[in-house]
Amino acid sequence: ATTLGAQAAASGRYFGTAVAAGRLGDSTYATILDREFNMITPENEMKWDTTEPSRGSFNFSPADQIVNHAQAHGQRMRGHTLVWHNQLPSWVGSITDANTLRSVMDNHITTEMTHFKGKIYAWDVVNEAFADGSTQHRGSVFQNVLGNGFIEEAFRTARAADPSAKLCYNDYNIENWSDAKTQGVYAMVRDFKSRGVPIDCVGFQSHFGSGGPPASFPTTLSNFTALGVDVQLTELDIAQAPTTAYSNTVKACVNVSRCAGITVWGIRDSDSWRSGDNPLLFDGGGNKKPAYDAVLSALGGG
Ligand code: G3I
């Protein structure tokens, strides 16, 4: 095949990108999006600060714009993200009572998932809950007020809200098998699977430096799938987009049967959150970079 999405589909996978609602009107952007990608993650539009800026008052309009675009163009959606310590409105961060926070969190999950029910392939239920360099959770209002059980609570609530959506835990710096953070997330998934806490997938954000993934990335992916979950590369970008680094990353997924797909975190370098790093597959003018060809060929095409 000659596009990323079609070539990924040839092995039963998807190839996605983060999308900003505000860019859908840019015809260069939309043309590449609809030609190359068959999965979409809203870059910011499903986050708590946008969807529930004040308690009980929900705004799904920006995300609806993206979902409508996806439905009109045969693209599936990843939902990102329900419970995260960033882009969290201050009214949530100032809750100190556990019963209040539990009901606020559960209501947020249930209301957002119900709004999009049937339209989301996989949700990042909890994002970035582990501390860097540690096997433990990071501090956050959820951790500090609800304790370790908040992640389990979120996943159980999510399963009840939309039983047909895949439920993912998503994080960065969990690609290197020997990192403490990787081991912490692995232990959580193993515990969830052993106790029947619903979890279907782990998202490896894959924000890499120019060297690309750590050598142990394939080991990490296969060790997680051995626990009985899918793995996905959810926010891939690589400083300076070296062809070898991109190729190694894509091959790490392709070589693991339960690696369901890859999402890059933006279309053109000018769309990236990493300004100056030029970490994506298209340049600011929308031209394919050498990394594009490396990815297409690592997917088995070109
Ligand atoms: O929308 C406002 C705009 O109204 C305002 O004028 C402007 C002034 O700063 O800010 C705009 O909001 C920005 C928003 O992106 C939309 O462009 C925020 O400041 C900015 O902080 C926010 O950055 C996002 C970042 O998450 C925030 O944490 C990036 O776009 C987004 O790519 C990035 O994505 C995260 C993933 O969700 C989780 N993993 C890491 C990844 C990279 O940081």
TrEMBL record:
Reactions performed catalytically: Endohydrolysis of (1->4)-beta-D-xylosidic linkages in xylans
Enzyme class label: hydrolase
Keyword Hydrolase in annotation: yes
Superkingdom of the organism of origin: Bacteria
Keywords on record: Carbohydrate metabolism, Glycosidase, Hydrolase, Polysaccharide degradation, Signal, Xylan degradation
EC numbers on record: 3.2.1.8
Residue span, GH10 domain: 1-298
Family listed: Belongs to the glycosyl hydrolase 10 (cellulase F) family.
Descriptive protein name: Beta-xylanase
From-to range in the entire protein, with total length: 22 to 323 of 441
